[in-house]
Prior knowledge:
Chain A is an alpha/beta fold. Chain A is built from 16 helices and 17 strands.
Amino acid sequence: MKITRRKLIRAAAAGTAMTGTLGLPTALFAGQKTVKLGMNIPMTGDYAPWGLPGLYGCQIVANDLNAAGGVKIGGDNYKIEIVAYDHAYDTEKAVQGYKKLVLEDRVKMVMMLGGSTVASVLPWARRKKMLTTTLLPSDITPKSDYLIATCESHPLYNVTGVEWLAENHPEAKTAVIVTNNDAEYGLQSAATYKAAFEVAGIKVVDVNLHGFDITDFAPIVSSVLAKKPDIFCMATSFYVTPLMEQLYHQGFKGKIISCTLDYYNEIIAKTSKDFVNGTIFQFPDFDDPALNQAGVSFPNPADFDAKFRKAHPTDWSAVSWEYPAILLNWLEGAKAAGSVEPTAVLSALKSNKNPNFVFGEGEWWGKDLWGQDNALVGRWPVVVVEDGKARIQEYRSVSSWLDRNKAVLIRHMKDLGLRTV
Amino acid sequence: MELIFQSLINGLIQGGFFALFAVGLVLIFGVMGVVNFAHGELVMVGAYTVWLLHAQHGLSYFFAIGVAVVLVTLIGLFMERFLFRPTQNDPLAGLICSIGMLFILQVVATLVGGEGPSKQVPPPFHGTWVLFEYLRIPYQRIFSLLISFFALSTLWYFLTRSKLGWALRAVSLDKEASALQGININRISMIAIGIGASLAGLAGALMAPLTNINPHMGHNVIITAFIVTIVGGVGSLSGAVLAAFLYALFHTFVTVYFGGTIATICGLVLMVVVLIVKPTGIMGTRISE
């Protein structure tokens, strides 16, 4: 085909028109900036259940915010972009991921799970003055100025479940605690449960610690049930299903309390609905009507729950809403600061003595235990399985329990060799 | 007393699993001289197969067990033909190949099952058998113990009463002499790894409803299998079976009376003590050069 000058001009004109049309949506968002928020989390390996669902949750919240036109911070309109890095719960990879997110991606906050992976990036957080979040406030040290825990205060919230159990089942007088023997999750949780049981007047008759190499929980369950406890307490999140299965088969009839009960439908499938009913834990489903109460600052939890389960039907876990709640906290701080810069947001968050916490008003806590008031604590839900469905029974205040009993908690932390100030 | 009897039963059931996967490891080492580090991953593939077919697609548990055994056997045969046979004159190369296979199987499991939580398989046999009002044995565990016992008995019969079994034992004693007697070493190696892998697949399939299934579950399995193999005597099948039950009972009772952490340490100490005091293990024999 011969290309004439006229044809060329016509084609160019058509091209320009098309480009202009395609460019329309871009024009609509003209002036919109993008703020990147990082997630340096385990997305593969044993710890993936405490990382990946959080990423899915954050993507849902970010998409919703962006679809609504973005967020206004300091006179600018921002689109939120989540940038994730999989550290597979490996400290070297965690440092690598942190550097990438901060130096290459230029994120304004890094959300992390906690534990050794957070400890490994703390020097970088300090050097780069990067706002970093953890789900384990025990990561906070007197020097970790840029590390905050604004959602889950593992395992402090467990005190609310024990308090509720003692009030509602006064006949339960003895308890056994089973947990993995690591200092990051298991022992922290065991110390907190021991303190909570002591305060509630419940005698702990055995604390059974085990490693991560257990393949059969029958001996452990037989061993602790021989102590005839009224309460079986799982201070672990890793082996709840096999422990529950053994409790079922070994005929345990007492009360069961646990930090988490992730994937409880699978536990019901392995045991029975009747057996799982009555189990007390701390992490609600977000279609729970009790989340519509005044004070809950997570916007439209039921809608979030539905979107999450539609997109990721088998992935809902405790962290599904926790990282998004941290994102929303950051947003509140950024709006207050009128800036997305990490130090400004941190300063705005910390200067608010009672900032919004996911389940209501919170307060900064932690100096007595870890050296800095960088953990946001407030009320926390007590959840019980009823007719095969997790339902919030009531909210109880973690902070008021800590005000009354922090000395007991610190003593039990020290007894188990855990770091306190 | 109740606790002692309950622990005895728990230990015997655990011993059945240990014996299944340890015997396979011993068989492969005895005949081929290869330390198969991917043996734990063969157990994992068995468990994943049951999860995929039974828990995810609703197919019969027995059918899933059958597929698991066949699939893992095929993987074993593949490993023999393409990894271990070409490297048969270099035990180190075989070991490294098995480590490579270990990672490959883990990645494949991740691709098939996705990341996220450990997989769970609802037990096909619900309920618990209650004996004397205090001993409680889940039907699922009784089923697993019976199948383990049947599989090990069949293996024992095969090894002691069939010509192929004799040939297999002969090769594990002396490859060269066996070859001189007209035994096809490659064929026997195929049979050895086929049996070893099928037992691993069976162990994984039986364990599936009783444990957390994830791509890394083979790690704990291989450590246990090594302890059992060393305690029983490297290369001794009857030693492996005996050690599997003794170790399971030992581990169970230490867990019950001293805790899981102590039990793990004691298991490894036991292995070290055996290596120092009786390096040939309970039933192994010293072979002079």
